[in-house]
Amino acid sequence: MTKSTFSSSDAASPSASPVSRRTVLKTLAAGTAGALAAPYIRPAYAAPTQLRALMWEVYAVPDIVGAFEEKHKIKFSPTFFDGNSEAYNKLRVGGSRDFDLVQADGFWPGLYFREKLIRDIDYAKIPNTANVYPVFKPDRFKLLTDEASGKHFGVTWCWGSYGTTYNAGEVPKEKVESIEVLFDPAFSGRLATSARFEENIALTGILAATRLGTKDKPRPDGKSFNPYVLTDEELAEVEKLLIQQKPLLLTRYQDNTTLQQLLESGAIVAAPEFAQVYRVLVQKKDKGEISADFSHQLVPKEGGLGWVDTWLVTTGVTDPATLDICHDFMNTFLAPENIKKISLIAGSSATVDLRSISTPEEQKLFLMDRTEELSSMYMFDQPSSTEKWERVWSRVQAA
Amino acid sequence: MKPRVAPAIFLGIPTVFLVGLFVLPLLSMLVLSVWRTENYHIIRDFSFHNYEVLATEGAYMTFLLRSLVMASAVSLICTLLAWPIAYGITLYGGRYKLLFSLAFAVPFLTGEVLRIIALQGLLGPLGLLNGVLLSLGAAPLRVIMYTNVASAIGLVYLYLPIVVTVIYLSLLNFDQRLIDAATIFGASPARAFFEVTWPLNLFGTLIGFALCFIPCLSATLAPRFLGGPNGTLYGMAMAQQFGESGTWALGAAMGVVLFAVSVLLVVGVARLIDLRRTGFTGFGRG
């Protein structure tokens, strides 16, 4: 016990202490204000105490995050989102100061950069970017480079297509090689598509343009065909096709678990998806848990949709110390042993070449020899007019 | 002055709460509805374009009509089911009345999403019902897999406890001796019910109906997870505007229309019914 140097009589006597009530109140007020403001005030180059990420939940692998926290004595604080538009809203509403890192795919990184929500990054500080397949290097994968300045603003780490997973015993391979399989009355009531309106319209847009013969003709914008930039005529054809497709669908699935159950139970025989469910089903088959054979058509003959997930750094990161941590986080994420672990958990193909540390089965399952096919896919993009696309989708849903 | 302090506090707090968390958001929704969106950007141009779209694009009217039919059907089913349940508890619950009424609150201990996903599992192709049918060699019941019937089952499951609780509370405050009086004077049990019990509990029944009808009108989760390709309801379409399509201004206009329709329906019912003859005691004795 520590003995007090003040006696109670000292404290009680007003004349014994020069401290007035006003001074005490002032001190308390200043202390309170200081305590409230403390979290927002720090020296410009102080070591950061936390790293805030806006990301998909499945990729927050505890082992990897925990090791990173231990290495940097930092707290990793993730906020999860379901779709890019939700992340975009969060970034815009909260401002980029609420997050240090953000995940996105398709055209979204470019949109974020144009709107100054994310900043440029230095690949030299992320040495593991050297291990990505050639198709994901900046000279070929242009979606993460600003055309005007040549600055890079993101790193890729996993990819996939929106191909068709099908029950090989029920659907002939020659049929599934075309998008037409999703509109084939022979499979009425035994088909499903995802609930994502952009991909439903874009994939059907490829088929519509193929049927109309407009896919390989000169486009109004002078560019090559992009299923996210459809003409009014093509959109009208898409609407017609999607309405015709409705009676053939059992449902539009909301999540992978539902899709897995539908395929596993035999309730449906084919559905477009990101190959994640296909991988789960193949692994279950290998373990003898299911008897049906499932296959995946990566790119239909008319053309298919593809996506690449990326890590980005927000413009809220201004001090070099936090930027270094962000660079190191992305580098850690891309380390072969880590990205393999993430791939296995999330069921997604890595952009990093993992063939030297993967079994032949894993190489086949995770399409490690098929990354070049990405170049034949149309990347997920922003619809040319979300308003027009929304009307089409509403009319399809109401029909 | 002193007697005026308590009402000011007791009515002031809910008023501040309502203004802050209901009126202001509704006003902001109203403002947003007269702006427009363009590729995920809000353009602050004043116009009634969104309301024109809602009035001229048949799809949104279809969603609203579907929702009105669904909400009416579900509320009617809930009321028809809730009455015998609540009446049974009142008459035969004995000392377990409280336990029975609390039992109806148990589903609320879990989230709505969890309950709907559980129901999706139950009604789905691998669910309990179809699982039994398949194991017996029968065909699965497609009518409960991703259809409007499945949505209706989900909504009844979600809102039945509320309707039962409200009708039960109404019956609990109903003086049962009035039925005895009616039967003593020669009324049959059926006549006593329709001329005494039913009219004097009509207000409670209407409250139960409304507490089911209004959330059903804006239901999002049940049609999304259970409804299938033809099951899009107004609330689900509205949520879509704030989600993936990013057409927030149109979504705000849909919200304003939904609010107006709900208010009109409540006012319409209130005008059709003489509250003094429904067991409503809020007017006082004067």
If you had to describe this structure to a student in words, what would you say it looks like?
The complex is a heterodimer of chains A (399) and B (286). Chain A has 399 residues and is of the alpha/beta class. Helices cover 38% and strands 15% of the residues of chain A. Chain A has helices spanning 8-12, 21-37, 62-72, 84-94, 108-114, 173-176, 197-212, 232-245, 256-265, 276-286, 320-334, 336-346, 360-365, 386-398, and strands at residues 50-55, 75-80, 101-105, 155-161, 163-167, 191-194, 249-253, 270-273, 294-297, 305-313, 349-350, 378-379. In chain A, the strands form three sheets. In chain A, strands 1, 2, 3, 4, 10, 11 and 12 form a seven-stranded mixed beta sheet that branches. Chain A has a three-stranded antiparallel beta sheet with strand order 8-5-9, with helices on one face. Chain A has a two-stranded parallel ribbon with strand order 6-7. Chain A is globular and about 90 Å long. Mean pLDDT of chain A is 86; it is low at 1-17. In chain B, strands 1-2 form a two-stranded antiparallel ribbon. The two termini of chain B are 25 Å apart. The chains are: A alpha/beta (399), B mainly alpha (286). Chain A binds chain B through residues 83, 85-86, 88-89, 111, 189, 195-198, 246, 249-252, 254, 258, 261-262, 264-267, 382-383, 385-387, 389-391, 393-395, 397-398, and chain B through 37-40, 53, 57-60, 62-63, 120, 124-126, 140, 142, 145-146, 224-225, 228-230, 232, 237, 240-241, 243-247, 250.
In summary, what is this structure?
The complex is a heterodimer of chains A (399) and B (286). Chain A has 399 residues and is an alpha/beta fold.
List key phrases describing it:
heterodimer, A: 399 residues, alpha/beta, 7-stranded mixed sheet, 3-stranded antiparallel sheet, 14 helices, 12 strands, 15% strand, globular, disordered N terminus, B: 286 residues, mainly alpha, two-stranded antiparallel sheet, 13 helices, 2 strands
